[in-house]
Amino acid sequence: MDHQTFAQLLGNYGEFMxxxxxxxxxxxxxxxxxHSKELxxxxxxxxxxxxxxxxxxxxxxxxxxxxxxTHLASVxxxxxxxxxxxxxxxxxxxxxxVHADNMVYQYELGLVDDVTxxxxxxxxxxxxxxxxxxxxxxxxxxxxxxxxxxxx
Length: 152
Fold this sequence. Notes:
- The chain starts with a helix and ends with a helix.
- It contains 5 helices and no strands.
- By secondary structure, the chain is mainly alpha-helical.
């Protein structure tokens, strides 16, 4: 084998090895892009979750404040033209409703495990009629969850 043929053979091997390296790099980049996309989606879900959690916490705090405060409940009752006991019951059970709605949302985002959601589902079934009877108007999310997971 002469020098020129040997150089050409080495060049061919070099091109082959280079194409393997380019292919490996493209595969690596594809995996990294997919991982980055998954990470971005997870971070977005967590951000949405935090906003919803803050809203739910505020709502529950307001309901608990209303259910615990005789003075505040009497003011609200007078304003709405209903009795204080009803106001306090609505506030107490409204806190549960806000919690249940938040748990369904967190589950839909994939941030709540199945065991916790099973407990929440049981709580929704146990209290749903009570919420409706107290005119608490469960959210569409809670209504759908109740309908989809009702025990037949």
